Amino acid sequence: MDFHIPVLSAEIIDFFDIQKGKIYIDGTLGHGGHALEILKKGGVVYGIDQDPQNLKIATNRIKEAGFENQFFPIHNNFNKLENIVKNKIKQKIDGLIIDLGLSQNQQTNQGRGFSFNDKISLDMRLDTQKQELTAENIINTYDYNELFEIFSKYAQEVYAKPIILKIISERQKSPIKTATKLADIIRDFYKNHHLKSKIDPSTKIFMALRIVVNDEFENLKKLLTQSLKVVKKDGKVCIITFHSGEDRIVKLFLNQNPLCLAQKPIKPSFEEIKYNPLSRSATLRSYRIV
User: Fold this and answer.
1) What is the predicted pLDDT for the residue at 109?
2) Is there a single domain that holds both residue 14 and residue 95?
3) Quick one: the chain helix, strand, coil %, rounded to 5?
4) β-strand pairing of 283-289 with 231-241
5) Which residues in the chain land under pLDDT 50?
6) What pLDDT shows up at residue 1?
7) Distance (Å, rounded) from C-alpha 202 to C-alpha 261?
8) Could you list the residue range(s) of the whole structural domain that residue 96 is in?
């Protein structure tokens, strides 16, 4: 299969300065791209992922690469970081990486609801085994004010009000059960009002729904606080964000915590964006525990 390309991998490996036998957590394992680079340098990696499909993909990939003795897969949410370190690793770690983007298969596969072209689902749960709330629930049952909170706060959609009214009108005719149908409603609004967008008009609302379904902002805040408790002194943390709200959370945390020696934020180079367009909105913020 085509594995997801890890974002800003060279910059992360350079910052970590990996030493053989040191312990790292990849809290968003995905397809194991970042983890593999750490393993190749001799690091020990505990890989956490909410998505059981991705956990299986990454575990098999790492096993085939011959690094299974250095790798420990964990099916969980990274908001349980402190508990995982206490019960499974039983010592503080040398490094932590979190990549808040979706993997390529999550973005494109049918049946997950993340893709604009998903004709069978509007789910958007990272872990369908443990989570209940779906994007379909939100779109079909939330009232105007609840949808406006999501579309304005998380999506920062300028045309939130009329789009919500259109969604409510359409769901009264029949439930909105697929990502394709929701995307078409948003696209049609832009088209019918002769509005232009540099990206697909659905992008911001889809990302906002994903953030709410998976409680991503609150989980990120919990993760950042716990990083101070589980990473060793002089240990390092890398956080890759793809949403301005996520980046603000990390920036505020770093500004408020003197124990974090922050590096300048890094964006992907033109060359990286060219061969990996999914990296275009990424921002890497790194810090050392002092």
Assistant:
1) 81
2) yes
3) 50, 15, 35
4) antiparallel
5) none
6) 64
7) 37
8) 9-105+216-289
Contact 102, 28 (CB under 8 A): no
Which of 96, 71, 76 has its CA nearest to residue 87? 76
Tell me, yes or no, whether 271 lies in a domain. Answer: yes
Rounded-to-integer distance, Cα 87 and Cα 76, Å = 13
CA torsion sign for 192, 197, 200, 201 is: negative
* Rounded Cα gap, residues 169 and 163, in angstroms: 10
Residue 180 sits in the same domain as residue 268: no
- pLDDT at position 158 is 95
* Same-domain status, 205 and 227: no
SS3 146: helix
What pLDDT shows up at residue 165?
98
Q: Do 15 and 59 lie in a common domain?
A: yes
Structure tokens at 34: 């970042």
Between the CA of residue 22 and those of 32, 40, 211, what are the distances in Å?
Answer: 18, 12, 32
Provide the CATH number for the domain around residue 13. 3.40.50.150
The CA radius of gyration of the chain, in Å to the nearest whole number, is 20
Specify the number of domains making up the chain.
2
Q: Token pair for residue 75?
A: 């099916």
116 is a domain residue: no
Are residues 232 and 271 located together in one domain of the fold? yes
pLDDT value for 234 = 97
Q: Which residues pair with 23 in a beta bridge?
A: 44
Does 165 map to a domain?
yes
Residue 121 lies in a domain: no
Residue 52 is encoded by which pair of tokens?
Answer: 């059981």
